[in-house]
Amino acid sequence: YLRFSTCVEANPFHWFFFLFSCFPLQIKLLGQVPPARGYHSGVLGSQGQWLIFGGKTEQLPSNTFYNDLWSFDFASLTWQLLVPDDSASSPRKRYWHSAVSYQNSIYVFGGYGIDPKYPGIGPMNDLWMWNSTDGWIELFANGTDLSPPPRQGHSAAIDNNGNMLIFGGQQLLNGLNDLWSYNFASGVWTQLKSTILPPPRSGQSGTVIGTKFWLFAGSLVPQGSPEVYHNDLWYYDLSANMWTQVQPDSSAPAQNQPWKRKAQSAVVIYSSLYIFGGYGLFQGLKNDLWVYITAVSYTHLRAHETPE
Fold first, then answer.
1. Which of the four, 11, 34, 102, 290, has the lowest number of CB atoms within 10 Å?
2. Which residues, in sequence order, are CB contacts of 10 under 8 Å at separation 6+?
3. How far apart are the first and last CA of the chain?
4. Per-residue pLDDT for 224 more than 90?
5. How far apart are CA 278 and CA 119, in angstroms?
6. pTM
7. Contact at 8 Å (CB) between 90 and 114?
8. How far is CA 38 from the centre of its chain?
């Protein structure tokens, strides 16, 4: 099944309310569909298709990891299995990795899964490229800089200069707060350093607006301590090489700041940052929608009906 939205009200002057003043419509899809999963990646390919890779189930008696690649065509509403599970040419099985789309390829980095470097399973730091011509190709770093340490739960985004940015995540019980840049043309990783750093975290949102990499929320599980959630907002200025905190953590935020959370989604539209859902501290799963207008503040967008 695939859920669409059928709109019952539209305001041409406030188009974001048009997008969310809708009710869900579930359509039954014909043919083969991917097995149920979570913590996978999904990006738009060069032909406008939705590409889904990896993830895991949580079905007892044991979890199942995937490394299959699926494509969803929005015109025909059909799924196509591009690379089957357990294919020898695919990246190792994993979940909570990152994926980005650049030019005619998608790039998958890291995640938690089956890695020969660790006994059994563990975090990874391998980088893979897939396109319809070459299939899967593992990319190895050029130059003298090291690759980022293994991790899962990190964020990834593309800047305006053809670089993939990787921030944070978790390496076993250690939280990370490092920022790396991968140049697609040269194949070189570079660590972007700053005297000021956000606290370590995973499950955060990372997006690019202009020359700034924006970071929101996430959480950290310190060894032997309760999980720590965030709702702070930061940006890294790619031209000045410096982190700036826009809004600090707040345990009881006012109406102009979202509650602490992790695993939310974020997208940039016309230089504004939209944030939806996630898992909130003391609140469980969220379905609230916020927009941060650069250099202004947050606004809570309330639709007539919100998704379940």
1. 11
2. 18, 21
3. 15
4. no
5. 31
6. 0.86
7. no
8. 12
